[in-house]
What does this fold into?
Amino acid sequence: MTWHATLRGLLLAIAALLVVAGCAGDPDELDDAADADADDAEADADADDDADDDEPAEDVDDVDTDEDAITLVANPWPGSYANVGVAEVLLAQELGHDVEVVEIDEQAQWSGLDAGDLDAVLEIWPSGHEDNMETYIEGAETVVDLGELGVVGEIGWFTPGYVLDEHPEMETWEGLEGREDTFATAETEPAGQFLAADPSFVQFDEEIIDNLGLDLEVVQSGSEAAQLTEVESAIADEEPILFYFYTPHWMHAEYDLEMVELPEPTQECLDAPDDERDCGYPEDVLFKAASAELEERAPDAFAFLDAFEMTNEAQDELTLRMEEDDLDYTEAAREWVEDNEDVWQDWLP
It folds into this structure.
């Protein structure tokens, strides 16, 4: 991301100055030392990139924010960044606000909104956040519901289309029973592997598997990037793989992914304790939320975010550009903003 390019340049400059100060005489030795230190500096910057991409802050106290900027939350999945990119560009370009983007765990974001350290989050998946909604929106009233985003999400169990071509019975969870070893790996055999998502995501798959009596072992991926690497590797070799995933996402435009039907998520099941859960995930109508302090501090930004909307199609368009063209989320957002003035003009106060 763009701020890491600045960091890399600074580290390289420091490395070069240290070399000039510490080496004398032989120009070849000077060049070799400069190259070595520059390589070390770039490696450190790359490591910082990887850490930031894979490990969102777990607490708002872990990040520094500018109290004068509009602070938007980005959760570690592409759609969240697509929303934030468009909002960031328009808040700066049309309303003149400085904007700061903070990547943080979707559970930890609530305390930041509650305290006013974070201003807004543009994509909340209601599944798994009922307690937070009750505590901060309905109870303390320190967080304001900004209404629906316009995107409808669905979480579930996915497998490549070629798996169902060979095993059509696996279109439902009953068809998995007794055939779980289709997904076995050296790590899990004789049980089948179920590949989990980023550990910060809301997930109930271990409970679902246990309560349905399936012989599947949940294997943690560590991050969405690591999970998608494993999925794409399996697809390239046409190997069977079963994994947690969701829509919308650019992967659906790239690959034929099919959802395995789980038991219907009845209200009774959703209200049951987590350890008794034996149904699939409900359809999620995604919504936005803001700190209650934002409306008074920056009423124009509050009104803009209240009106801000996105669709599944627009989000897929943005995230696919980010992936296929290797664009930073702000670059993809600027292009989208240029091409869709008729859409976003209605969001401006």
Remarks:
- Confidence is low (pLDDT under 50) at residues 1-54.
- The longest strand covers residues 143-160.
- The two ends are 30 Å apart (CA to CA).
